[in-house]
Amino acid sequence: MPDVPDLHNxxxxxxxxVLGWYAWHTASHTLPNLVRAFxxxxxxxxxxxxxxxxxxxxxxxxERRSRHADxxxxxxxxxxxxxxxxxx
Length: 88
Description:
The protein is mostly helical. Helix content is 89%, strand content 0%. It is built from 1 helix and no strands. The protein has one helix spanning 7-84. The longest helix is centred in the middle third of the chain and has 78 residues, at 7-84. The radius of gyration is 37 Å and the shape is rod-shaped. The termini are far apart. The relative contact order is 0.04.
């Protein structure tokens, strides 16, 4: 009778090979791709947030200048009224 290979050991070897390939593929392809995609997305989000911050900063500066101009007008109007009052 011919020598029959031990299939039980072959099955264990196949399972080990599949798990080894899976670990290699995960470590060399899947994880680097996930990390790269995450970094690209975060870079895009940071750029978007920075642009929004700049717009908000410009809007707040415009509002501050407008309020300052209004306060100067009010101060001038009060000075003008004070000058019109009779001095005692």
